[in-house]
From TrEMBL:
Protein family (similarity comment): Belongs to the ANP32 family.
A Pfam family of this chain: LRR_9
Source organism per UniProt: Alligator mississippiensis (American alligator)
Descriptive protein name: Acidic leucine-rich nuclear phosphoprotein 32 family member
Cellular component GO terms, alphabetical: nucleus
Length: 265
């Protein structure tokens, strides 16, 4: 996509003066120069033009509020005095992957008093002997070169949102909230289980009581039946004699003894 079209899309119906951040990465520049960008972007603080085949920054407009400029993976080999003239408040400059070969090419950056971070990864200049010492000597305002200070201490993350730290914090907060929700759910589940167990115990006790009552009733019924049978036996009558069974047995026994006495006599 051409740089002008990309710029129009990035504006999203905003006025240039309303834009603070502008990303034009991977678009196509005309003849290796910046096209469409003007000084109307007076409040622009962050500008990224990575891999757009830039050969020069000569067409960069004056952007007094610009603080961070990303120009990596282009073909810039010099002409950095434009940056000192048109971006006087620049603090971060990334020239990684360009065609910078000599330390002297960086000399115009001395006029950027607020510049404290410079990246030159994958530039030929980094292969020079005493490269780091030479750059820090040339640009005393620098704090970090290629992400490390003069004592080889790594630079802290300057842009948490860009590095993803903001997302991590949000994930942790959501994670904490999620854990609290999980704990609440577990507590509610435990209470439900306890309630269910108590209900089961109550049901079991009620069933046992009912069983006990049923057993007692069954025993009472059995005892009653046995007593009725006994009474029935005692109250039975012989149909042939009209005498009760108990009296009949006594009469038979008496007759048996009588017969035995008659035989012995």
């Amino acid at each position: 996509m051409e740089m002008k079209k990309r710029l129009t899309l990035e504006l999203r119906n905003k006025k240039p003066a309303e834009v603070k951040e502008l990303v034009l990465d991977n678009c196509r520049s005309d003849d290796g120069k910046i096209v469409g960008l003007s000084s109307d972007f007076e409040n622009l603080e962050f500008l990224s033009m990575i891999n757009i085949n830039l050969l020069s920054v000569s067409n960069l407009p004056k952007l007094n509020k610009l603080r961070k400029l990303e120009l990596s993976d282009n073909r810039i080999s010099g002409g950095l005095e434009v940056l000192a003239e048109r971006t006087p408040n620049l603090t971060h400059l990334n020239l990684s992957g360009n065609k910078i070969k000599d330390i002297n090419t960086l000399e115009p950056l001395k006029k950027l008093p607020n510049l404290h971070s410079l990246d030159l990864f994958n530039c030929e200049v980094t292969m020079l002997i005493n490269y780091r010492e030479s750059v820090f000597a040339l640009l005393p305002q620098l704090t970090y070169l290629d992400g490390f200070d003069v004592d080889d201490q790594e630079a802290p993350d300057s842009d948490p949102e860009a590095d993803g730290d903001g997302l991590d914090d949000e994930y942790e907060e959501n994670g904490d909230e999620g854990e609290e929700d999980d704990d609440d759910e577990e507590d509610e589940l435990d209470e439900e289980v306890i309630d269910d167990e108590e209900e089961d115990d109550d049901d079991l006790d009620a069933e046992e009581e009912e069983d006990g009552v049923d057993d007692e009733e069954e025993e009472d019924d059995e005892d009653g039946e046995d007593e009725e049978e006994d009474e029935g036996d005692e109250g039975a009558f012989c149909s042939c004699t009209g005498v009760s069974s108990g009296n009949l047995i006594c009469m038979l026994t008496s007759r048996k003894h009588l017969l035995l006495e008659v035989q012995f006599t």
